[in-house]
Structure formats: C-alpha cells, structure tokens
Amino acid sequence: MTGSSEPTSRQAAQQDITAAETAQQGTAAGQVTQQGAAAGRAAGRAYRIVAMETHDVRFPTSRELDGSDAMNPDPDYSAAYVVLKTDDGHEGHGFAFTIGRGNDVQTAAIATLEPYVLGKDVEDLGALYKEMVGDSQLRWLGPEKGVMHMAISAVVNALWDLKAKRAGKPVWRLLSEMSPEEIVALVDFRYLSDALTPDEALQILRKAEGGKQERMAEIARTGYPAYTTSPGWLGYGDEKLRRLCKEAIEQGFGQIKLKVGADLEDDRRRFRIAREVCGPDFPIAIDANQRWDVGSGIEWINALREFGPHWVEEPTSPDDVLGHAAIARGIAPIPVATGEHVQNRIVFKQLLQAGAISYLQIDAARVGGVNENVAILLLAAKFGVPVCPHAGGVGLCELVQHLSMFDYVAVSGTMDGRVIEYVDHLHEHFVDPVVIRDGRYLAPSAPGFSAQMHAESIAAHLFPNGSVWRDA
Ligand SMILES: [Mg+2]
C-alpha cells in the first residue's frame, strides 16, 4: 500500500478546527465556552465539533460473576467512551462495549477517528459515516470488522447523541420522523444490492408510513416488550437462579434467557429449575455464546429439546454462516438466534440469505453505529425476520431501545415476536437510564441517545487510576 498524504476530509477538518480555535479568541482548543459560541455566531457560521475526549472506563463486574457465560467467565463490563464537544456548548456521548482487557486498545482506536469529527457538524451523518468507514488506511484493520469498526460505532453513536440533543428529541423519535428518503441516505448499500436495493428499502419505509403517527404515540404510551437475562448467568447458583426466575415473572417479563454450554448436566438441571418456576409454556431462550462446533452444538441442543428452548443463541462462531444454517436444520423447529458478535451488515445479509437465523440480534455498538443498524433493520424487514436486540453489557440497553422503537414505528411496523434484552446492571451510572415497567422498556423522552454516563461514574471507573480500581 502506498500513500502517506492525509485524506482531503482531514485537511478540511484541520482547517475548520483551526478556524474554530481562532473564533474562540484565545480559549484553549476544545474548551467549550460561551465566548466561543458567540464568536461562532458572529462569524456567521454554524456550530462545529471542536474537541473529542476518550476515556477507558471499566466496571469490576467479575467480582460478582455478573455477566458470566460459557465463553466469558469473568467479564469486567467496560466502555471505551467518547465525548464530542461543540463550540456552542453541546456534547455527544458514545462508547464501544468491551469486557475488560483490551478496552485501552479500543479507546486508542476511537482516538484515531478524531480528524473525521473535528470541525464537522451533524447535518449529514450518512456522508460522515461513509467517510469514516472508507478511510483507506484504517480500513486495512478491518475492513468493517473488529476494533476499528467498533470505534466507528462509538463515534457514529456519539454523533447521533449530539444530533438528537440538538434537535431536542430522543434518537428513536428523531429517526422515526425522518422521511423514507432521508433514512435511505443514512445507509451504505455497498455489498447489499444482491439482497436489498435502495429502491426496495424505500418501498419498505414508504409502506411503514401508514400508521406511523399512531405507532409513535403507542410507543410513547406503552413502550416496548423486554426479556431478562439476569436470572441466567452461568456463575449464579441454583437458589439464585430460582429466586431470579421468580422475580422475573413477578416483574412482568414475558421471557427469560439462560446461559448454557459449559456442562450438559448442569444445563439440564438449571433448565429444569427454570421450567419448574416459570411453567411449561413460558418462553425460555438459551445462549451458548459461541461454545460449540456445528456437530456438538446440534447434539447438545437436542439434549435440551425436552425443555422447549424458545431460541438457541450464538451456538457457534458468529462468522460461520453455513454452520448456523446447518445447526438450524439440525435442531428444527427450535429457532436459531445470533447477532451480538456479527461484525457487519454483510454477514447479517448472508445469515438471512442462508435461512440460518429465525431471530436477528442487533447490537447498538458493534457494527457501524446507528447507520449500519438501520441497514440491518431494513434487511431483517425484507426477509421478514424479527429483530430481538442484544443488550447484555454496560449501556447497551440504553442505546438499543431507541433502535427497536424506531423499527416498530418506521421499518417493520410490528412488535410481533420481538423483545429487547434487558440486564439489570450498571444503569445507575447513566444520566438517562432505561426505565422498565411491567416487563417493558418505557420510551425515552430526554433528548439524545441515552448514552451519557455521569461524570462522577466516569471518573471513579477510569482504568487503572479511578478510585474503584486504585482502592481495590
Ligand atoms: Mg448472547
């Protein structure tokens, strides 16, 4: 590969940031001040993003085995966290979710994207997203997968948080109120056209225009159904499992999920306990977190068939499209679900084309943020597969609720067979935490993407020198 010259967009960004600094008349670069805002207005230009901060934030969840599963026995839920600041005093917050070690790598990857946002606004997030994904040098680290793509997700989502705050609306409503043409312009259709063209996407969105206002009002009134994974972490003992299953039902959840895949006899015992508590018809999904090969997965799942799994999640490698299809055939009619580690829209396309999944599980912070998730929601609608988002992590519930609500209002137009995962961890660290009532996510009403953590939470959990880590 050749080429050491800066992309044009970077040069433009640097020029803009220089102008912004000049406009701030002597204040430090990135410091958001009233004078800066006034200077910006006096110069007759729109606001600009003038600073990007990153933070390595980690929560010591492994101490209680919260979040433990067959492949991830000791996660420390973490956020590679980014804050964008504008010269008129607004902030956009976003993050990539990791489970501890490597969160510093993830944070460093986010920092490489700074030239793409400095000096920019949020008027055309379709173009800005495509610019970042298309960086000819950073793209070598993917393309469109792994640490770099998750970094793009964090920044794209922070831009959406900023856009929604400026608009005075929650992201789900901001997206829902866009026209079909505006929504299609958010999507990168490259590599999708054999499964979904821009025209087909427009048709899906135009069809959903009917009844959109009523659905928006309904979401605001009654929210969106949730299921809970909290009873099912693999590290929890039988009595804790029994108690949490009972509590899930009392709290109004219509579905739970159990982690499986470490030991078959343990899985049978735990599934039996959950069935005893929840009853014969209650939906209980199971999640193997990529534990099995294709053949052993089929055997293991069939050994749990008598307990009636509602779905089997991540039976094998998230990259193994044909393996998922083989498992789906081998365990039919038990449905297969996956998505939380699916790296981009192209793999989702293939999973759908291969008939490999019955439930599609988007993750708000793994693929390229809101924009790529809009593409995936459109793909799912085209193939008629329900979207049941992944949300086990820190802040993922906060983000992904917006996407499901948008899906209901403006894309699929239905909640049939759809539930958003809910885990009861770490919400207290967020300024606008999710609200669950009677087993449903209540619609966020505060402007933004519900992504912002309290400043004190960020400070206390900075790794390795925040008080939570330093004093451990
Ligand atoms: Mg899972």
UniProtKB/TrEMBL annotation:
Origin superkingdom: Bacteria
Amino acid composition bias (Low complexity), ranges on this chain: 18-32
Catalytic activity as recorded in UniProt: L-fuconate = 2-dehydro-3-deoxy-L-fuconate + H2O
Essential cofactor(s): Mg(2+)
Keywords of this entry: Lyase, Magnesium, Metal-binding
Chloroplast among keywords: no
The UniProt record lists the keyword Metal-binding: yes
Residue ranges annotated for the Mandelate racemase/muconate lactonizing enzyme C-terminal domain, each copy included: 238-334
Signal peptide segment: none
Family matches, as InterPro entries: Enolase-like_C_sf, Enolase-like_N, Enolase_C-like, L-fuconate_dehydratase, Mandelate_racemase_C, Mandelate_racemase_N_dom, RHMD-like
E.C. number(s) listed in UniProt: 4.2.1.68
Biased composition annotated in UniProt, kind: Polar residues: 1-17
Annotated region (Disordered), positions in chain: 1-32
Name of the protein: L-fuconate dehydratase
Species whose genome carries this gene: Actinomadura luzonensis
